[in-house]
């Protein structure tokens, strides 16, 4: 018997505040223990009621729209937990706190081309496995099973692909490129790289007294550089037109004209309006910065070369505006 747990279960119909008041006699650690157990049970029960005995694989293969619209059903099909506390703790543990939530982890690996982060091998495997919940050391077995399922294109593999969102698809693609190369990178070579880097950085960090900070600065950065080199090796080259810009080091961009309506409404404040448009545009909008550039250095070089030109447009009032612009 666990009387504290049974008491907490009996109070789950109350609000969080009311429950906390009724359990205030418990020490904080004990209250946290029983509360988390009950919350997990409630999440599991809600998920069972939501699934209602339905076959999620068949649902996704027939019409994935309901699963895509419901995060809990999507997570169940992908093998993820719906209890965020457990998922975040797992992500933080497997990534050594480089990422603290699943959304940050997926976003980092999806954008690895632009902003590399020092993720160890298991973090890449976790993303390939859709950030499925791993309680303990079973990640390798799950990873190998997912590889087999994808190779055979089993119903569960096809169903998962139908409900994944774009950032997760991109992150899994990146992980699929990187995992075999990271596995081939020998421990001895990595140790030598780390040792050389530590020797180089020690002179710069001689005034840093915080040992934990020293370790954080020394360990990840060199590994991040190693991953960047691996990324350039395993990922495809940028499109030819991007390579041409990088080699020529010449400015590139677009020529813009303001329409009559824009000039009338915002002519005196156009710079501020245009800045707001750019800041609030969707991240996945079509543009060169959404194209694979084979590394952060190339991406930054393109940013430095990007330009905009706004030539003065003198409209011909006797013509339709579209015809005038084309002329």
Description:
The protein is an all-alpha fold. The protein has three domains: 1-53; 55-184, no CATH class; 240-326, no CATH class. The chain has helices at 3-10, 16-22, 28-51, 56-62, 65-69, 71-78, 84-94, 102-110, 121-128, 139-152, 155-163, 166-184, 187-202, 211-234, 240-248, 260-266, 270-279, 296-305, 321-326; strands at residues 252-255, 306-309. The chain has a two-stranded parallel ribbon. Helix 1 crosses helix 3 (28-51), helix 4 packs across helix 11 (155-163) and helix 13 crosses helix 14 (211-234). The radius of gyration is 26 Å and the shape is globular.
Percent helix, as a range, is 55-70%
Summed over residues and divided by their number, the pLDDT gives a mean of 82
What is the overall number of helices? Answer: 19
Oligomeric organization of the protein chains: single chain
Order of helices and strands: HHHHHHHHHHHHHHHEHHHEH
| Structure summary, number of beta strands | 2
Low-confidence stretches: none
Structural class: mainly alpha
Please describe the biggest sheet, giving its number of strands, its sense, and whether it closes into a barrel: 2 strands, parallel
**Percent range for β-strand residues:** under 5%
| Overall spatial form | globular
Biggest sheet, spatial arrangement of strands: 1-2
Rounded Rg: 26 Å
Distance between the termini: 85 Å
Count of individual domains? 3
In short:
This protein has helices at 3-10, 16-22, 28-51, 56-62, 65-69, 71-78, 84-94, 102-110, 121-128, 139-152, 155-163, 166-184, 187-202, 211-234, 240-248, 260-266, 270-279, 296-305, 321-326, and strands at 252-255, 306-309. The chain has 327 residues and is mainly alpha-helical.
């Amino acid at each position: 018997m666990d009387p504290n747990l049974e008491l907490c279960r009996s109070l789950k119909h109350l609000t969080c505040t009311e429950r906390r008041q009724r359990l205030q006699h418990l020490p904080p650690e004990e209250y946290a223990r029983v509360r988390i157990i009950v919350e997990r049970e409630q999440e599991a029960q809600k998920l069972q009621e939501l699934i209602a005995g339905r076959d999620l694989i068949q649902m996704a293969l027939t019409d994935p729209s309901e699963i895509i619209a419901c995060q809990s059903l999507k997570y169940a099909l992908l093998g993820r937990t719906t209890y965020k506390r457990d998922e975040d703790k797992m992500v933080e543990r497997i990534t050594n706190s480089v990422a603290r939530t699943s959304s940050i982890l997926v976003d980092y690996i999806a954008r690895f081309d632009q902003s590399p982060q020092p993720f160890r091998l298991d973090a890449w495997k976790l993303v390939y496995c859709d950030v499925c919940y791993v309680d303990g050391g079973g990640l390798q077995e799950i990873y190998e099973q997912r590889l087999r399922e994808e190779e055979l294109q089993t119903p569960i593999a096809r169903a998962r692909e139908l409900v994944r969102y774009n950032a997760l698809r991109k992150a899994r693609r990146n992980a699929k490129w990187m995992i075999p190369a990271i596995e081939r990178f020998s421990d001895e070579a990595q140790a030598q790289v780390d040792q050389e880097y530590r020797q180089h950085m020690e002179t710069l960090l001689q005034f840093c007294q915080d040992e934990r900070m020293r370790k954080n600065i020394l360990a990840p950065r060199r590994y991040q550089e190693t991953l960047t080199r691996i990324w350039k090796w395993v990922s495809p080259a940028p499109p030819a037109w991007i390579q041409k810009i990088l080699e020529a080091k010449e400015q590139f961009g677009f020529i813009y004209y303001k329409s009559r309506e824009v000039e009338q409404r915002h002519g005196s404040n156009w710079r501020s309006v245009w800045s707001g448009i750019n800041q609030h545009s969707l991240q996945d909008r079509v543009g060169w910065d959404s194209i694979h550039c084979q590394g952060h250095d190339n991406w930054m070089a393109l940013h430095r070369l990007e330009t905009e030109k706004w030539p003065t447009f003198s409209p011909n009032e006797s013509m339709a505006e579209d015809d005038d612009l084309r002329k």
